[in-house]
Write a structure and sequence with these properties.
There is one protein chain. This protein is α+β, with helices and mostly antiparallel strands. Helices cover 36% and strands 23% of the residues. The chain contains 18 helices and 23 strands. It has a seven-stranded antiparallel sheet with strand order 12-13-14-18-17-16-15. The protein has a four-stranded antiparallel sheet with strand order 9-10-11-19. A hairpin with a 6-residue loop joins strand 1 and strand 2. Helix 6 crosses helix 10. The longest helix has 19 residues. The N terminus is likely disordered.
Length: 492
């Protein structure tokens, strides 16, 4: 993540910045969105290229939500907002990511992403316009570009992201599957500026700018509740949320010019678009019951080492040993057969492979070998297995610090050899929860309404999705978003 510039640097006069910029063959220019003078260390073409280069990795890592109509809707709304910004000619791209976390972010050059998780928690098209406008503001104000020299790459994929032990980080490239994504943490000044720009763009398109404050209220409610996954919305990890942000946005909105009278909100039509939206984690893409991992879509199961910390993502299923000295990662491999894929892995520079075993695993064609990796003074011990199932090659890679490898090798090997076809319908026939948009036919309490629908256990989720508190009386005709279905075996 990026660090905020020091206060001393932020007070350097613009003339001094321009002087330093000339020394770096850069230029100082007035930003058309903010009116501020900026030291430009990157051309617009380079900015666009950075977004274009990063976009495929984000899509591969997080996935696009498989609803063409919803994707087109968000792209259209975003494009209309961007067309009224100060940088309308950027190749603006808006995507809905298939991710349950409450998040939205922007990359340089006009690439804007919202998750299905944040869409589920929005209450109107005006709120979505506010989120998109805010992210557009980060691009038009060139906040990412201004911080690029301080950027840190968050490694996602076999690097295990936040759970990878420091002593293993230098080995993450051994699997040749790590993905570097650029995520920037904005400071409060940048956030305030993007709020101002988001309000501006909403007004220019005719939306009620005050609705952006509702997004901040939602973030606050989810945060105060402990979050739906035990933590705050992911948006807050890159977008600081000052306590007075709602009030500040309302003040901005009161002074904004709005191109429609009355300003647009568009609630019911927006909620109709959310009907059927996947809510929460999608078990079809894999889920854990204890240490057992099941993947219904790919029809396999395996047992991960007991007590290891596990994580499932689009590109890998991973586990970290209790001592944080060994890593296990399951990914899809390339090759024509298990032996050929194994030989390709062992042929990488710095890897010395042991004897290859081609014994089958639970009736599936497989190949495995121990290996040692060395680069300079760094050394790594590991074991790799390749298994073929239903026309797909799966790579089961385990590696760790040599001093503790003997203790971890048996656990890793047992996990590799537990891979098998998934046939039990109890674990195969699972489905994700989905948003159902319901209308209340008569005045009734929230708890009574949910009990009649058979989803009383979803009360807290319904409160967060609809910004309700306690057990309020619902009015006749009131519309609610309710997650239905999605119960997993094993009590999850």
């Amino acid at each position: 993540m990026h660090t905020k510039p020091s206060s001393r640097r932020s007070r350097v006069p613009g003339a001094a910045l321009c002087a330093m910029g000339l020394a770096l063959l850069s230029s100082c220019a007035v930003n058309p969105a903010t009116g501020a003078r900026q030291l430009t260390l990157m051309t617009e073409g380079q900015e666009i290229q950075m977004g274009q280069d990063a976009d495929p990795g984000i899509v591969a890592s997080m996935g696009l939500y498989p609803d063409e109509s919803l994707q087109a809707y968000v792209q259209d709304l975003g494009s209309r907002l961007a067309a009224r910004s100060e940088r309308p000619n950027l190749p603006w791209t808006f995507r809905v990511l298939d991710d349950p976390l409450i998040n939205a972010f922007a990359l340089p050059g006009g690439y804007i992403y919202v998750t299905r998780g944040i869409l589920a928690h929005l209450d109107s098209e005006a709120e979505l316009a506010g989120v998109l406008g805010h992210e557009i503001g980060h691009v038009t104000a060139r906040h990412s570009v201004n911080q690029i020299s301080r950027a840190q790459v968050a490694q996602i994929g076999l690097g295990v992201g936040m759970i990878l032990a420091p002593e293993l980080q230098r080995f993450e490239g051994v699997a040749s599957a790590s993905l570097g994504l650029l995520f920037l943490k904005f400071g409060r000044d940048d956030e305030r500026e993007s709020d101002q720009l988001g309000v501006r763009y909403m007004g220019r398109l005719g939306y009620d700018p005050a609705q952006l404050s509702g997004v901040m209220a939602m973030l606050g409610q989810v945060t105060s509740s402990g979050g739906e996954a035990g933590g705050p919305p992911e948006w807050l990890s890159t977008h600081p949320n000052p306590a007075n942000r709602e009030g500040a946005i309302l003040e901005m909105a009161s002074n904004a010019e709005v191109a429609a009278d009355p300003p647009m909100v568009v609630r019911e039509a927006f909620l109709a678009r959310l009907d059927g939206l996947t809510f929460g984690k999608n078990p079809r893409e894999g889920y854990f019951v204890g240490d057992q991992f099941y993947h219904p879509d790919m029809r396999f199961q395996m047992a991960f080492p007991s007590g290891w910390k596990t994580a499932n993502s689009k590109q890998a299923v991973q586990a970290l040993s209790p001592g944080e000295d060994a890593l296990f990662a399951l990914t899809v491999a390339e090759g024509t057969s298990p032996p050929s894929a194994l030989r390709t892995f062992l042929a990488q520079e710095g890897i010395e492979g042991g004897q290859i075993s081609d014994a089958s695993v639970n009736g599936l064609s497989a190949a495995a070998a121990d290996f040692r990796f060395q680069s300079g003074q760094d050394e790594l011990s590991g074991r790799i297995g390749i298994v073929e199932h239903a026309g797909t090659l799966f790579q089961l890679l385990a590696y760790g610090v040599p001093a503790q490898w003997d203790e971890n090798r048996s656990s890793a090997r047992a996990a590799q050899e537990s891979f098998r076809a998934l046939q039990d319908p109890t674990y195969l026939n699972v489905e994700p929860a989905r948003i159902e948009v319901l209308s209340v036919s008569r005045a009734i309490s929230l708890e009574q309404f949910l009990a009649q629908r058979g989803v009383g256990e979803k009360a807290q989720q319904v409160r967060l999705l609809n910004r309700l508190e306690g057990n309020p009386t619902l009015a006749a005709g009131q519309t609610l978003k309710v997650p239905v279905g999605g119960r997993l075996p094993g009590g999850e």
